[in-house]
Amino acid sequence: MSSSGFDFANSDASSSGVYLVAHEDLAPIDAAASDAGWLVRTLDLRSCADKSSLLRRIAKALDIPDSWGSTWDALAFCLRDFTWLPARGYVFLFDHADDLRDAAKADFKHLLDVFDEAGFSWAERAVPFWAFFAMSDAAFDEMHD
Fold first, then answer.
1. In what order do the strands lie in the sheet with 17-22?
2. CB atoms within 10 A of CB 25
């Protein structure tokens, strides 16, 4: 078990999906997932205010082939494929996720849904796939109000 509370070395794909975490959790999650041999990608969403910017950042961080299409459906397809990015497990760390949530709530929700659906798809193939969205304490409080 890492200091983040996630045990990547012994986890199975059944826990794949989307998790909301505090900013300070990202570094220990990154270290634990890297130590377990998983592919880790960090995406900084600082000042990300719209779908277009978001999809560009994701494409760059995941080395998505240029022909991918830049749509929600294309992203969903790419997240279920990864023939160009093979790994025994995947961890995606979204820093400053609350910036996107504050600027574009519908896009933020859609992003969570797309990554959650991809997590289910990978879990069916017994491949761990986790997306961690770091948010401020204030953002957590707003989401629970």
1. 17-22, 129-135, 90-95, 39-44
2. 19
